[in-house]
Amino acid sequence: MDYISELTEKGKDAKQAARKLATMSTALKNEALLAMATALENKQDVIVAANAQDINRAEANGMPKPLIDRLLLNQTRILAMAEGLRQIAALPDPVGEVLGGWLRPNGLAITKIRVPLGVIGIIYEARPNVTVDAAGLCLKAGNAVILRGGSEAIDSNKAIAEIIAGAAYAVGVPAGAIALVETTDRQVVSAMLKLNQYLDVIIPRGGAGLIKTVVENSTVPVIATGTGVCHTFVDVTADLAMAQEIAFNAKVSRPGVCNAMETLLVHEAVAAQFLPAMLERYHQAGVEIRGCEQTMKYHAAVKPAMAEDWAAEFLDLILAVRVVSSLEAAIEHITAYSTCHSEAIVTSDYEHARRFQQEVDAAAVYVNASTRFTDGFEFGFGAEIGISTQKLHARGPMGLPELTSIKYVINGNGQIRT
Amino acid sequence: MDYISELTEKGKDAKQAARKLATMSTALKNEALLAMATALENKQDVIVAANAQDINRAEANGMPKPLIDRLLLNQTRILAMAEGLRQIAALPDPVGEVLGGWLRPNGLAITKIRVPLGVIGIIYEARPNVTVDAAGLCLKAGNAVILRGGSEAIDSNKAIAEIIAGAAYAVGVPAGAIALVETTDRQVVSAMLKLNQYLDVIIPRGGAGLIKTVVENSTVPVIATGTGVCHTFVDVTADLAMAQEIAFNAKVSRPGVCNAMETLLVHEAVAAQFLPAMLERYHQAGVEIRGCEQTMKYHAAVKPAMAEDWAAEFLDLILAVRVVSSLEAAIEHITAYSTCHSEAIVTSDYEHARRFQQEVDAAAVYVNASTRFTDGFEFGFGAEIGISTQKLHARGPMGLPELTSIKYVINGNGQIRT
């Protein structure tokens, strides 16, 4: 089947399924999620065998080890995917929530109700666990989903999608509700981005290149996720021991993720006291430090930062460090280079804390905590479909409510407009 | 100045201004809105003179009378624009509203706060009152705005923008907060649609052609507004007198707007009783009726409906009428042809009312009322920037809260992620 036919057929079926999903009971959705979890556990061998094909192909193509590791599925990872579905089943159903309501002077009763978005397209890269995650979250929020994973994981994704969709359909979820695009032709992505007839939204999950392609080419509304050039500012009144722990955690605990710090800003009045030990600790941890001129005075390992380092999302053990003259200078730097993801200040000054949180424009603005907490689970959402870095529809970690829209239902007794 | 330079300069200034607007006090914003209103009143002669240039040009170009009327500004209309600004000043400020908050087990206090979107681009057509309206709403919600009106209204828009921006800046609104694109070159629209560096969102206001161009070409997130193929279904148990009033009002009270009904659906069991009088009333009111075969039996004036009539947004005294066999058939028809704007059922059956409101996917779903109520003022929002027909970010009438985003502020005392 050519990819246009495949997309059209899956789009049509998904749209049909979405109508039924919109009014499906929470009980049935949860039953489906639990059945999907059990099916994953029961068919581990099928998944592992399919995954082996992907792994073999990747090795033959010389894929780097860390990427092969992301692709790999073993018992632990399959059980974790199943557990994820059970957690989604345990979350409250966002659909049907009454968000407000009022009576108009003419007697019309208006009620604002949470409804599913409809059909969600997810475009993602190598990790096959996204297949399960995204399908589970979309289903719980009453949406049909069309999944397009990376071609490297196609055998794993096909096996997983068949297992979970089959389990869901067996308990009464309408066919077409969980669809995986099987064509690996890259052109299928371009076609998906123009599938306005069937898709209500596209959420890309992956690297900056994927996000850019989707944002630039999609006519379907997009929720852009991901890119994080995050800062931590150590203010003049900071508890420096706390600042060291926060700044170390923000960079080193998991450098490859979007909420990791990329640039450390230090007030000049505490630079001499704070930076030598801090930089040595980074150095010991294998962090490459790219600093401004002042920073270079405090440790021999500091390389000079280039202009592009201030805007870089390193996603690695690399850190840009800059000494700034004031809170205002720190906010100016952040405003110039931030991707508006997560920003932190370490301070003991009430007014500085207040101003930083008011004036810094980002999805998450921290006082005296690590930027690493920007995450659906750490926020207590119990799930996460991604972290939005746009301001429209959703911002920051997106849980189930962010996968919904609203509808106004209006009850009258014959009102007409004069 | 070429249009790229103009857009870049205005974009940069708007972004700078947006930072200050984000933390501007409600009192100052209201003072600015009132000053803008007074300035419009005081400089009516300037506006009328500028408008005369637009009108002269339009007449010379042979613009049709109804369009010239939309372009015309007189004292009544200028006073109404000023009054609109005073109404916006009287509305509650959405910025800073705490939408929720919670304490995490690790002691992090998370608060979700409403913040402005940033810089909003508005692309609109002939009516110059949008210049005032959009500027006022964006300012109240703390956003900078870049306005691009139709070239037909350029002289009026320039005069209005200069007057209101001048009045706002004089009381302390930062320069650049209210910008009008002065280049009339059509290419400026294409360039605006790619201005991701400066624009957080684009809202097109106008006909289906404009909306389509924006949706298809914008890389900036868009809120699509407008198109309304709205239905009214007269159910078997309908109070037929009520149904006639509602169906007449929905079509005839203002046929040129998006919430007007375009197709009337009638249950076959009441068609013989309902349609003859209904169709005669439409006929008397000058409505052209395009009906299905069954409809044609009930009035001599009914022309046969073509396939494309079921999907048409006539925006005129034209109505498609179809007899259907059941509630399900009505919902099927609506699902196939609706633009998900406003849909109504007239019924006395509780279960049919419930099912219609649950199963019909639209921004506003009415029981026993006219679709004409889908409107920010009729909903009680006190303002309206447009009616969203997409599901992302906003759906239905958009007031001030729909011109905002959110931010999470997180307060800790040294939390790091393990």
UniProtKB/TrEMBL annotation, chains A, B:
Query: Keywords, A to Z?
Result: Amino-acid biosynthesis, Cytoplasm, NADP, Oxidoreductase, Proline biosynthesis
GN (gene name): proA
What is the official name of this protein in its record?
Answer: Gamma-glutamyl phosphate reductase
Q: What is its subcellular localisation?
A: Cytoplasm
Q: What class of enzyme is it?
A: oxidoreductase
Query: What terms describe the molecular function in GO for this protein?
Result: glutamate-5-semialdehyde dehydrogenase activity; NADP binding
The Aldehyde dehydrogenase domain covers which part of the protein? 12-287
Give the source's domain of life in one word.
Answer: Bacteria
What is the phylogenetic placement of the source species in the record? Bacteria, Bacillati, Bacillota, Negativicutes, Selenomonadales
Checking InterPro entries in the record gives:
Ald_DH/histidinol_DH, Ald_DH_C, Ald_DH_N, Aldehyde_DH_dom, G-glutamylP_reductase_CS, Glu-5-SA_DH, GPR_dom
Organism per entry: Sporomusa ovata
Q: Does the keyword NADP apply?
A: yes
Q: Which HAMAP family match?
A: ProA
Q: State whether keyword Manganese applies.
A: no
Q: Which GO terms describe its biological process?
A: L-proline biosynthetic process
What does the protein in this record do?
A: Catalyzes the NADPH-dependent reduction of L-glutamate 5-phosphate into L-glutamate 5-semialdehyde and phosphate. The product spontaneously undergoes cyclization to form 1-pyrroline-5-carboxylate.
In short, the EC number is 1.2.1.41
